[in-house]
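Dear colleague,

Thank you for sharing your sequence with our group. We've completed the structure prediction you requested, and as agreed, I am returning the results in plain text so they can be pasted directly into your records. Please verify that the sequence below matches your submission; if there's any discrepancy, let me know and we will rerun it promptly.
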Amino acid sequence: MELAMAFRSSSSPQNSRLGDFRRGSHTRPRPSSLHYKRKGINSMLLAGDGDHAGDRQGFTPSLTSFFFQFLQQPTVSHRALFLQLAAPAIFFLSFGACACVSGPGVPLRPAQTVALDSQIGAVEDGEPALLSNSVSEENKLAESEKEMELKAAFERWKSKAFALTVPLRIVSLRGSVPPSWFKDFIQVQGRKMKLQSEFRGKLEDIFSELLAATKRGSVDLKSAMAADVVTIGDSWLCLAISKGVIEPLGNVEEQDWFKELEEKWRTYLYRNNNGNLDSDGKIWAVPYRWGSIVIAYKTSKFAKLNLSPVQDWGDLWRPELAGKISMVDSPREVVGAVLKFMGASYNTQNIDVEVPGGRNLVLHNLMRLQRQVRLFDSVHYLKAFATGDVWVAVGWSSDVLPAAKRMSNVAVIVPKSGASLWADLWAIPAATKFNTNRIGGRVRSPSPLIHQWIEFCLQPARALPFLQEVIPGSSPSALKGIPAEDWSEDQSKGKPKLDTNLIAGVPPPEILSKCEFLEPLSEGTLLDYKWLVAGMQKPRQGQISRLIEYFSLIVQTLGLRSCGTQS
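Please find the predicted structure tokens below.
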């Protein structure tokens, strides 16, 4: 029975192809029956199939073919011989098949072997091997449907519109920020940002709102204290820090905009908790605009009377200008003008030691200046200049330059010996200490866009409105000066021509090097200032007397209040 099955299996065309696959692709052609007759059985068994003697993959099919050929012979002796050799032949066939699997030939991978065995079993049983394939196809279809459902759900999620915005509320000094900045920043940030800009008429108004919230212990949502960022004047910075109405900026040293600031800015911005300059302190505010004190005079009046033009502080003491000068009522600017006239610094800390002649000579020159100035008033000094009541006006460039451009026959200069510098800065209100759930643009914390706004304002491209004189002042990057040869007349093309020594709102380099930011005063220097102002209070009649009283009041209250002893 086993012999018959072996013969049937060998004679099947399918098994013949299957056997070729299992053996490999290099099976040699079957030899003819005459070949076996000539060589004989013994030589065939010993030599194998030609050149492949000893190769089990080549030997097995040749022997099987020999049996088929041999059975077809009619000779009885051959059949008898076949019966004698049947058992050994089957043994050799089985042994050869096992050797093919375990021998050094090309091995089959386990997955291929299992699949092959299942195919063999299916073919022998006469049934197609489709069960495992159908199950696999069903699993693939199910997975494909799930993937399609997930993709469809993701597309529906992407198509939804989410109302997610990041607000930024800014309270600034009116006229200090170019309008294009707000438009450009909105364009850069996109629709996800909600920018709210508000303006105040004076720096004092912003500080008063911050201070009122601190004293009250609560925040009005319309107050400047509830804003994300506010404008602080440099003259108010010391007081704002000492009163705790603003908070320091964190990690500014890592910001690119801070690295680009001039060393003069960094020295001026580092402050301790009392608001005094301290190289080990913190950064409490960032400048976005600056300027200087300037002197404006009417060239027509000077030409008519054949007067020499104003060039420096000493010209304010000229007899022909007595009663023809208006000036801001800032004690630091008035006393500072006297100090510059005497060759000293605005930031002199010990007048008796650092100034020749000491306090007495400073007081003498201050009283002389008082006789020259018709009006000390930071609000109306330019009105008196515009109406012709005075010929000379001393004030901040942010006020004087726009007014001078509306007039004719007016020149504006920065004194040759230098002048004081002013700056508008961005600061963060100290509102996080209040017990409320709405502070600034976010809940209980400032907007995350604050640093982006500050960096945006300090980019070189933001200097264009200042160069085009849209807004008076200069970009912080211009503190190093703008050489005259680098200034193009095209920048001011179409603008009113103004007789000035300013270059794009910046003093010439040789004058800028002598200009100073106003630093906080020590307690001893404050006492000197109070003594000087008290010496001006003589029994007099009229407006000058009232202005001197107001001048003294400023010194005793906000204008020169100490921020703490300076180290």
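Summary note from our side: The two ends are 116 Å apart (CA to CA).

Kind regards,
the structure core
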